[in-house]
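For reproducibility, we list the full input for the RFL complex.
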Amino acid sequence: QRVAVVVVGAGPAGLTVGNILRTAGLDCVVLETETREFIEQRPRAGVIEEWCVRGLEKRGLADTLLQRAQRHTECEFRFDGHRHRLRYVDLTGQHHYVYPQPLLVTDLVREYADVRGGDIRFSVRDVRLHDLDTDRPSVSYLCPDTGERQVLLCDFVAGCDGARGVTRAAVPPERVRVARHDYGIGWLALLAEAPPSSDCVVFGIHPRGFAGHMARSPEVTRYYLEVPPGDDPDDWPHERVWAELQQRLATDAPPLTEGRLIEKRVLDMHNYVVEPMVFGRLFLAGDAAHLTAPIAAKGMNLALHDAFVLGDGLVAYLTQGDGTGLTTYSEACLTRVWDYQEFSLWLSEIYHGTSSGDPYRAATTLARLRRVFTSPTAAVAFAEQFLGPRAG
Ligand code: RFL
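The corresponding predicted structure, in tokenized form, follows.
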């Protein structure tokens, strides 16, 4: 079988590329190792920036999101036992949308497969990429029903298979530079069956470690606790989790509303960036090309930015022979990727400096944080990075 583009991975990046290609009437196949049910329920991101929502809207992909997402206009830092609110909407005119990633994936799958008639193959096994540095690349995989190897000939491959996929590994090591950063800390990522305990995102900066509170829906709240990297989630039973959250987020605010923990996993916080994001006919997008630990809630936003640039670039080339978008793809994406990487690093020091055990780092962290609440210029600088580029 021959198609214009094979998209590997049905996450936010791959599904957005697929949708953009289908709108232009181009043939593509999306390959996904998991089932549809699984990807429509996998909990992850929730915070989407305004420019990103506008990008989805422009491509006809935000109807349900705009009906159902919550709009957030401020955030709260808790330190020194007090609450400090930052109304970022007043500083930037922008707000955050909160819309759980599984809902966005559900919308994107439905639009791609059920509305735009796109070809998507779930539960595929052993995906392999071939002849990427020729103009006749191909992708093969084992069919889940028959176990036979299927081959898809194509013009381009979009590598959108996330941090643990295979496409990044198909690039010869001498053709890329991989820059890595390990924060040396872990986060216990939790989902609680409990209504949010605040009307906005809350960051607890505490000598015992960072704690975060993020609404996901009226019934479900995401929490984070800084823990030693590699900690075992089983060492964090219900009582210990809630005692630690109550302590690290304690102020004059009412105690947190507790609930059953429906997800509990330890993330070892690290970042990487692959440069360039292109090898021959393979274009990497999203977490396959760069990872940002969820410190600043940027990963899915970057994945969608890549997808917009890549989808538009592929359409321009395949329908009009205009290769500009593909030639500048890597550079256009990496500028934003590095900007967000730097902000994550900056924010990480605020979150984790106080609990580092180093009194010098702890005191400079608090100085940095106080500056955001005493200098209007510092507040605007923070808000601009936190919200991302102005929506066009
Ligand atoms: P995904 O979402 O990982 O999708 C990749 C897809 O590829 C499939 N796959 C394969 N398919 C075919 N062949 C193979 N060999 C394959 N190997 C894997 C996978 O099953 C999957 O379906 O990557 P994509 O599209 O690049 O999207 C990236 C985002 O998912 C990620 O950056 C965000 O979840 C990061 N993130 C957040 N980002 C935000 O912008 N805002 C947030 O609030 C936010 N919160 C988070 C987060 C990530 C978290 N975790 C779990 C690390 C919170 C958490 C806890």
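The chain has two domains: 2-70+97-179+272-344, 183-269+357-387. The mean pLDDT is 96. Both points were considered when choosing residues for closer inspection.
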